[in-house]
Amino acid sequence: MSYSWRGCRVLLGSMPSFRPHIHRHPCTICSSAVTQYQDATETTSADICDDKNIRNDIHSASHVSCFNYLSSDKAATATPASLHFRDRQPSGWSGRALGATVCESRRAALNEWLGMMQNAAKTTQSQPEDAYLQQCWQAFRDPSRALTDREMEGAIELLDRQCEFQKSCTTSDKCLVGESANSFLMRLRGGDVHSVDEERQLSFQRTLLEFRDLANTIKLPFFLCCGTALAAHREGYFIPHDVDIDVGVFYEDLQDLGDPQKAVVGLLSHAALGGRFVLFDVCGTVEKGLELRFLHSETQVPIDLNVYYQPLPQDDKIVAEFGPFVWTATYYESSAARRHGMYRYRHAPFRAAMKHMSFCDTMASSSDPTNTVGFLVPPESYVEECYGKDWRTPRRFTYAEGLQNGGFANIIDE
């Protein structure tokens, strides 16, 4: 599977588009595509379904198919979403073809919408398209070049053509290390941990370790955050009822890599070419409230990456009341109705207080004299800001329930 340049245009904040997303029924994102099409053509849903020309265009244009394969509390309660595959139906996946009248109309609207944006972005180069895309890719790899929008689109389109998503094996088929060398596994089997799904813990472990490998390819420092930071401090292993992994990145660290947007696209390109992770949702922009949602192609474990920012210019009153802070964002539910179109979470600055914890690393921290094994984790004060003073007492709630019932103590009221 591939992520398309259209999704990355959303990420870069340069133009609205139809995002790659996990499809739910009913799907309001797909519905909005129908509305967009109807507004542009002054047609109705019936007109869309009865127009043979549009139906023919559906089959001749890039094929869009929707796959339901991820069950996540956050995704299930979110703005509905779907992963769209272009011109590919990898073996090993049983995609459910869309054939109902409503689905056909949505597909027509989607293809029309995507087609209009693609035509608007096409260049008029005389050279063959493949050669042009290669030229864009070379420009992307040249750190001295200031990329144009068209060159960025071309580089991402080239990646899009090269990448497929295909399930190959399960976690049990592929061990990270020998069991005796995996200190995390040995600890799970020890006397302190009871009634934990070992296979699930190993799936989460593998996902996080392989994300670390991915981040290391571009020298991107990250830390555990939100529920995964809570797990590191409280359980010492992944919370049994958690549905994903949470990691954070400071915006300043993206700046230290050169161009923040290019750093993010570099992360996405390595993810696509490596084949281990699929980007299935992009929220916010690089400069404000970015959240990237990945899915490990084999373990099927989602991992969310959130960027942490300094206060916005409009945050003077918050700074005056609470002092300096950093913030990150999540989406879905009623986020669109909020001031910035997102839920923002405030934290006292914690970079200097982070420490390495072995957590799920295969090596125990006691065997590492450099004290750098494991993962950077914010201090306990960070966890208390998120989950309240009683954070040591396990409480089970979904993302939606946490928003509704005050489960997240540090959401900025705006």
TrEMBL record:
Q: Which species is this record about? A: Trypanosoma brucei brucei (strain 927/4 GUTat10.1)
Q: Which protein, by its recorded name, is this?
A: LicD/FKTN/FKRP nucleotidyltransferase domain-containing protein
Q: Give the superkingdom in one word.
A: Eukaryota
One of the protein's GO biological processes: glycoprotein metabolic process
User: Per the database record, which ranges form the LicD/FKTN/FKRP nucleotidyltransferase domain?
Assistant: 218-257
* Lineage of origin: Eukaryota, Discoba, Euglenozoa, Kinetoplastea, Metakinetoplastina
InterPro entries assigned? LicD/FKTN/FKRP_NTP_transf, LPS_cholinephosphotransferase
In terms of PANTHER family, this protein maps to: LIPOPOLYSACCHARIDE CHOLINEPHOSPHOTRANSFERASE LICD, MNN4P
One Gene Ontology CC term in the entry: tripartite attachment complex
Q: Where is the signal peptide?
A: none
